[in-house]
């Protein structure tokens, strides 16, 4: 990773919120774009934190502190996130992290990127059952359902949403489903029957545009 990110990496790994916010804002001051900071620095740092956790080099409190630091950074960077001119609305999206999964840092970035790019969002939060996702999509008259999962055991919950939509005549053609998150891949998305997969928040915006245009 680029050396200019080192101080931010150190702060996230140390779980130091104050230092994390300071370093992230300094990068914005140097002209870095917020999505760039997330994709080039914060995501790979959290992946490394996750790997250390798997190897038992760190334990749950450290993992939690790093996660909380990134959440604090996320809030501090929000005002600096630029999007296209919102102008005309580009469609309605229901987003959530699927049942059994409490990870929401990535989902929140995706939500915010979609919002600043003109989509109308309803964020259902984390650990949302398939029935509740679909109920909310109907109520909100959503064009797209966006699902996030960060753990392998959450993939069946994601597939549940897709299966219910595909198996019920009344939902046929009503919603497009886009999926993303650590254990999700293009291959998994295709096999599960999702309409699209996005690797990161920037791609999520491109994918959502394509799905909305192609309805
Ligand atoms: C931070 C973190 C936590 C924090 C979460 C804080 C929060 N509010 O989210 C805390 C400490 C609470 C936590 C808890 C746990 N965690 Co955790 N966690 C992580 C960690 C280190 C980082 C995740 C993250 O935020 N990444 C940064 C964001 C920006 O990236 P992202 O989420 O991938 O999102 C981007 C893309 O994927 C994409 N994207 C995401 N969603 C979507 C959706 C759509 C539609 C699209 C298009 C794109 C998209 O765009 C995003 C932005 O670019 C990961 C490590 C890893 N490799 O991911 C482990 C990790 C996910 N956790 C793991 C585990 C095991 C747990 C616990 C079970 C630990 C425990 N023993 O209690 C619990 C689970 C609780 C639960 N039921 O969910 C494992 C999962 C293993 C697996 N593959 O199944 C991982 C991989 C760590 C590891 N290597 O073991 N965790």
Write the layout of secondary structure elements.
Elements: H1 6-14, H2 17-29, H3 34-54, H4 60-77, E1 92-97, H5 105-116, E2 120-123, H6 130-140, E3 144-148, H7 155-167, E4 176-180, H8 186-192, E5 196-197, H9 201-213
Parallel strand pairs: 1-2, 1-3, 3-4, 4-5
The site of cobalamin has 42 residues, from helix 3, helix 4, helix 5, strand 3 and strand 4.
What does this structure look like?
The chain has 215 residues and is an alpha/beta fold. It has nine helices and five strands. Helix 1 (6-14) runs antiparallel to helix 2 and helix 5 (105-116) crosses helix 9 (201-213). It folds into two domains: 3-80, Orthogonal Bundle (Methyltransferase, Methionine Synthase (B12-binding Domains), Chain A, domain 1); 92-213, Cobalamin-binding domain (Rossmann fold). The radius of gyration is 18 Å and the shape is globular. It has helices at residues 6-14, 17-29, 34-54, 60-77, 105-116, 130-140, 155-167, 186-192, 201-213; strands spanning 92-97, 120-123, 144-148, 176-180, 196-197. It has a five-stranded parallel sheet with strand order 2-1-3-4-5, sandwiched between helices. Helix 8 (186-192) links the parallel strand 4 (176-180) and strand 5. The protein starts with 5 loop residues before the first helix and ends with a helix. 54% of the residues lie in helices and 10% in strands.
């Amino acid at each position: 990773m680029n050396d200019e990110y080192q101080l931010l990496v150190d702060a996230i790994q140390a779980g130091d919120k104050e230092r994390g916010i300071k370093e992230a804002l300094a990068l914005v001051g140097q002209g870095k774009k917020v999505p760039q900071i997330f994709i080039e620095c914060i995501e790979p740092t959290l992946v490394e934190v996750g790997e250390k956790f798997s190897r038992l080099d760190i334990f749950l409190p450290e993992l939690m502190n790093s996660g909380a630091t990134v959440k604090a950074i996320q809030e501090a960077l929000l005002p600096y996130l630029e999007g296209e001119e919102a102008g005309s609305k580009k469609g309605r999206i229901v987003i959530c992290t699927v049942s059994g999964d409490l990870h929401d840092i990535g989902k929140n970035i995706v939500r915010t990127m979609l919002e600043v790019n003109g989509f109308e969002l309803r964020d259902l939060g984390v650990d949302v059952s398939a029935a509740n996702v679909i109920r909310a999509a109907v109520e909100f008259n959503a064009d797209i359902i966006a699902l996030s999962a960060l753990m392998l055991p959450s993939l069946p919950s994601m597939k549940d949403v897709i299966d219910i939509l595909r198996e019920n005549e009344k939902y046929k053609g009503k919603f497009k489903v886009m999926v993303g998150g650590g254990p999700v891949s293009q291959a998994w998305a295709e096999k599960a029957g999702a309409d699209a997969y996005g690797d990161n928040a920037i791609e999520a915006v491109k994918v959502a545009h394509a799905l909305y245009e192609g309805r």
